[in-house]
Amino acid sequence: MERDILFDGNIRAKGYQVRVKGCLSEAFLAWLDLPGSYDPQADETLLLVATPDQAALYGLLNRLRDLGLTLISVESQPI
Fold first, then answer.
1. What are the phi and psi torsion angles at 10 (to 5°)?
2. Is residue 46 a contact partner of residue 18, using CB atoms and an 8 Å limit?
């Protein structure tokens, strides 16, 4: 069952798993303000993202691109 997270009291969030190539440091994850975990076997970092809408998701993806990170996948995820 999917749970909703409220932004500003009335906008429901969507959850996503975003995978990027390489290991992102704890400091970098804190700067992005996102929880994440590193899989050393796959050399991928999994980011757990909650956004109020797709525009915010695209903003995050653009930010990751601008930082030179290689995007592996984006999947919808119940939150």
1. -150, 0
2. yes
pLDDT in tens, 33-63: 899 999 999 999 999 999 888 899 999 999 9
Q: Where are the domains of the chain?
A: 6-76
Comparing C-alpha atoms, which of 11, 36, 13 is closest to residue 64? 36
| Domain 6-76: top CATH class | alpha beta
Contacts of 32 (CB under 8 A, 6+ apart): 24, 47, 63
Total-model pTM: 0.80
Quick check: 20 and 75 in contact, CB under 8 A?
no
68 contacts 28 by C-beta, under 8 angstroms: no
